[in-house]
Amino acid sequence: MTALKKLRTEQGLTLEAVGVAMGVTRQCVQMWEAGRRWPSSADLPKLARVLGCSIDDLFAGEACQEDYNKKESA
To answer: Is the Cβ–Cβ distance between 8 and 51 less than 8 Å?
Structure first.
């Protein structure tokens, strides 16, 4: 979720603050930002509220799986 860090910093939130609001650790939020893990689909609305954005905003700049598969097979 490459947009997550940008959205978080624009709101002036720390990894810790987002983690507390979401009920997860700072390290978990950091993994979301790095793209090593993803929040559950059930957590996306809450994450969007915490960051003051839409769910679509969380995925800004993310390639969909279909686009990724096309790049891999090329």
So the answer is: yes
- 26, 66, 69, 71 from 31: Cα distances, Å: 9, 23, 23, 24
Q: How far apart are the first and last CA of the chain?
A: 24
Mean pLDDT score of the chain? 87
Task: State pTM to two decimals.
Answer: 0.79
Tell me the C-alpha to C-alpha distance, in Å, between residue 55 and each of 3, 4, 8, 58: 11, 11, 14, 5
The one-letter code for the residue type at 43 is: D
